[in-house]
Design brief:
The protein is built from six helices and no strands. By secondary structure, it is mainly alpha-helical. It has a domain of 105 residues: Serine Threonine Protein Phosphatase 5, Tetratricopeptide repeat, CATH 1.25.40.10. Helix 3 runs antiparallel to helix 4 and helix 4 runs antiparallel to helix 5.
Length: 152
Amino acid sequence: MKKICLISLITLAVFVVAPQAGRAQGGAKQGPNVLRDADMEKDSLHNLEVARQYFKLRKAYKASLARCEEIIAGNPTFSKLDEVLLLAGQSSLRLSESKGRQSVKTAADKLRDDARDYLSMLVNNYPDSRFKDEALQELKPLGGPKPKESKP
């Protein structure tokens, strides 16, 4: 009887403790937990979709850039910030080349510098982004990405 109780106790321990030990290691594959406001995320996602439409369908680069800048300023933890930075950089670059349907009063040099800033932030801050190669292509004529700023 004692043997049966001991075997039962060991079996129970294996089934209770082993899954918990396995779960303890499961979090290693996940990225850092970033607290995101669901309403801000939804609003930023809407603004990104509108910015995409302005950029691709209407060639309204000024409006696209404005939407992207709104996301960057209002929601710096947005889950798709890498795409926003690419779109902002591309919009700014197209505006500097006087492309699109909207005119701007900002100097072309300033717009090119802004485009380089946005694209460099994407390359430096999101090295695993699926948009990195596209950003690097856009950066070639601008002198490549700016070096990542080191914190003192």
